[in-house]
């Protein structure tokens, strides 16, 4: 019997093999996540043109609200994707789950590229786009749980903040790639060609790269912690039930932790381009330069992750949230009174710096809340519920806030609400910096 058990135990990995696995995991999670978020973010960046193509309306504000409502649809289904793909990851492995999410995102990209306009096929056109958003939402919903589980379960205890920060870096890559691509495209082709259908080009670019992300993920080995669980026969039958039964306080805390992270991310990436053109009357390419500035600021995620491994997660996250609450309204006041591209870029860079100081450690703190048995499901559920509520509806709520109040600065109120919730949640969460996790 002892021999049988010994045969089931995986052989310990050699240090060189373990380092190679860790490097592969970082690369696979970063490039795969960047491609997923690149496609997801393009929808928000091209909201004005997608509205004209698939959701025409007599009033530009109504058209934009419909587009952002469809954008929100992709977020509404994300918790379902987190639960379904998270369960798959906790029972069958992180590798299979991440490969599946990449395939689903590629399907969503393909639909965005080939779907005819409303003028060509009528009501079928927006219905097909809504289906694409659902597929993309399910895919992206399953991405975060698998990616963060992979990163923290392969990292040494003293470097989990650094490893987990690469999940934020993957979003940074999508900010820079999407912002740079869209800015170059609008600058080269102009608004007429973009409106006529050239906005589809970046989606096609993402579709061409997707096979690389799938291939890289298929080459990964499972994490040591998941292999130990599998060998010990302790894989949970129902990760979802177990997470909500045994980890409910942690789930609620995780939802609060993500609130500021996602509100800042979605407002800067998906709302600001339309806001700058429609409300601030800036040129079409200015907002995309602002998005590039956010991306550049977020490149600091690994350094913030390293710092968090030294000083702890809480001090950085609480400080950033407090600064966001105090300074976000003045930053929008300055932007409203000095409507120039350089002020927009400076404001977006400032928000990006605060966001990376918060979100760099947040990735590790979120994953450390839960055990290996339910980590993918629980991380995915808490993250995506928060993203749905505070991120998916952020562009829509921000648009309605400006419309109802007539004050462009009212966007800042959304940041403040999310900031207060996150500050309280971080304060209540346990700080497991440097501690061994199960």
UniProtKB/TrEMBL annotation:
Q: Which UniProt keywords apply?
A: Cell membrane, Membrane, Symport, Transmembrane, Transmembrane helix, Transport
List residues of the Major facilitator superfamily (MFS) profile domain.
25-434
Q: Has keyword Calcium?
A: no
Q: Where are the transmembrane segments?
A: 25-50, 62-85, 97-121, 127-152, 173-193, 199-216, 251-276, 288-308, 315-335, 341-360, 381-405, 411-429
Q: Which Pfam families match?
A: MFS_1, Sugar_tr
Cellular compartment(s) = Cell membrane
Topology relative to the membrane:
Multi-pass membrane protein
Write down the InterPro entries for this protein, in alphabetical order.
Answer: H+-coupled_symporters (IPR051084), MFS (IPR011701), MFS_dom (IPR020846), MFS_sugar_transport-like (IPR005828), Sugar_transporter_CS (IPR005829)
| PANTHER family in UniProt | ALPHA-KETOGLUTARATE PERMEASE
Q: Which family is this sequence assigned to?
A: Belongs to the major facilitator superfamily. Metabolite:H+ Symporter (MHS) family (TC 2.A.1.6) family.
Q: What is this protein called?
A: MFS transporter
The source organism is Candidimonas humi
